[in-house]
Amino acid sequence: MKTTFPHACLFGVLALASACGGDDTRDPPPYESGVKSDAPVSELSTEDKRKICETYGAHIDAHLDLNMIARAVCLPTSLLLGGTTEQSCEEYLNDCTKNFLVTGNVDARVHDEAACIASLDTCATSVVDLEGCVNVNLDFVYDILNRLSCRRAGDESVMSEARHDQQAASVCSQKDQTCGQIAESPIL
Question: pLDDT tens across 95-128, in order?
Fold first, then answer.
């Protein structure tokens, strides 16, 4: 299972969700970089790229933690492989989440601003698309956490949803390849 979280994709997904009629009243709010430009991200000034990295980092720090990502990654698997009772599913989920966090497979935060800025040098997408990609990926994490639960372990409709979530492909895969850390999704 791929467990990198396309940061650029994370940006782009949120903007796409808003552009496609997403609910702007949801909590947490969609990511917005504050950079206004129609140019490809790669053509922005270093200061604008820095602003994208800073606002992305602040948004992730405020609205997404590693436990949420780990639970979103582990919950579908727990429903499918953790047994048919809430208790057995919860035990599987807790073990999976703990192991996921120990391995350090994913981190959507920006740890190195210079590396983040450099990764945007090849990002051929627009700021709006990048923001949209981020938001779609964040929405995917929040949706899993809000929709799936071990309380419904053994329910065939929930297991079908969990199978679907495991097979979901990144809608930002091309942006993932050109926009570096910001485009990487921790669960897709």
Answer: 999 988 776 555 566 778 888 888 898 888 899 9
36, 49, 21, 23: which is closest to 119 by C-alpha? 49
Q: At 132, which amino acid appears?
A: G
Q: What length is written for the chain?
A: 188
Residues 6+ apart with CB under 8 A from 17: 30, 132, 135, 136, 139
Q: Is 170:53 a contact under the CB 8 Å cutoff?
A: no
Per residue in 44-99, pLDDT (tens digit) is 999 999 999 999 888 888 888 888 888 988 999 999 999 999 999 999 999 999 98
Cα torsion for 135, 65, 108, 54, to the nearest 10°?
A: 80
Across 70-99, b (16+ Cβ under 10 Å) vs e yields bbbbbbbbbbbebbeeeebbbebbeebbee
| Residue-range domain boundaries for the chain | 7-20+39-178
Does the pTM surpass 0.85? The reply is: no
